[in-house]
Amino acid sequence: MGEGALVLFSGGQDSSTCLAWALARYGRVETVGFDYGQRHRAELDCREGVREGIVAIGGWRGALGPDHRVDIAGGMSAIGETALTGAMEITMTSSGLPNTFVPGRNLLFFTYAAAIAYRRGLRRLIGGMCETDYSGYPDCRDDTLKAMQLALNLGMERRFVVETPLMWIDKAGTWQLAHELGGERLVSLIVEGTLSCYRGDRTHRHEWGYGCGTCPACELRARGWERWRAGRADG
After folding, report:
1. How many domains does the chain have?
2. Among 127, 158, 167, 223, who pairs with 8 as Cys (CB 3.0-4.6 Å)?
3. Pairwise CA distance, residues 38 & 14, whole Å
4. Euclidean distance between CA atoms 203 and 197, whole angstroms
5. Which residue segment(s) compose the domain that 62 sits in?
6. Is residue 141 one of the residues assigned to a domain?
7. How far apart are CA 53 and CA 189, in angstroms?
8. What's 100's domain CATH number?
9. From the CA atom positions of the chain, what is the Rg in Å?
10. 186-195 b/e with 16+ CB inside 10 Å = b?
11. What is the pLDDT along the chain (235 residues), one digit of tens a residue?
12. On the CB side of 229, how many CA atoms lie within 13 Å of its CA?
């Protein structure tokens, strides 16, 4: 198994930054996206344009391999409805988590990704999870993903490495990382081409990109943008 990488690539800000990060490090990078019945399925429509834009900016066309798209919508909807997979208002639950939390989602994503990587001879599995500036999802935590790596390696008898380059940086840091990787061109591509809004809103254009502006994902993205731009102005 080589040092190639498979990026969990949704078409949003975080996974797009991770794709650029992977392309800057590895000579062979493939992507995988999941249709799990998400209300913001419009993010999937962004993926190909963002992929092409990133390789053009960084000169990484020779490193970017195939894209894989996996449909698990039926399975996810069968085991429980959330605000990301059903028509309900986004609220906080008694557990302290927003009802946008889809239980087991990232665990399933990494299981499918590892199965693809096993077949494709890729060692590194890269995701945009973080636990510094997020909605509190337990399957985004570093401990969870370390345990997931161990389970995958035991269950498939491979030496996968789960990498989360955004784990310990906030959204302002994610904007900064994108700028370091591809300058204003990559920042502009993320603003114009990606979608992270939980409502899948591409009708409202903000300084930081498209979205409803009020869901947790939009609020995180907007606050990160404001902190990043303020830091650049102060510097």
Report:
1. 1
2. 127
3. 17
4. 11
5. 5-196
6. yes
7. 7
8. 3.40.50.620
9. 17
10. bbebbbebbb
11. 458 999 999 999 999 999 999 999 999 999 999 987 776 578 889 999 999 999 999 999 999 999 999 988 766 655 556 544 445 565 654 555 454 555 678 898 999 999 999 999 999 999 999 998 766 788 889 999 999 999 999 999 999 999 999 999 999 999 999 999 999 999 999 999 999 998 889 999 999 999 999 988 899 999 999 999 998 877 6
12. 10
The sheet with strand 124-126 has its strands ordered as 64-71, 29-35, 5-8, 124-126, 161-163
Residue 226 domain flag = no
Beta strands in the chain (DSSP E): 5-8, 29-35, 64-71, 124-126, 161-163, 205-206, 209-210
Residue 209 lies in a domain: no
Type of residue at 160: F
CA 84 – CA 153 distance, rounded (Å): 30
Give the integer Cα–Cα distance in Å for 171 and 173.
Answer: 5
Three-state DSSP class for 84?
coil
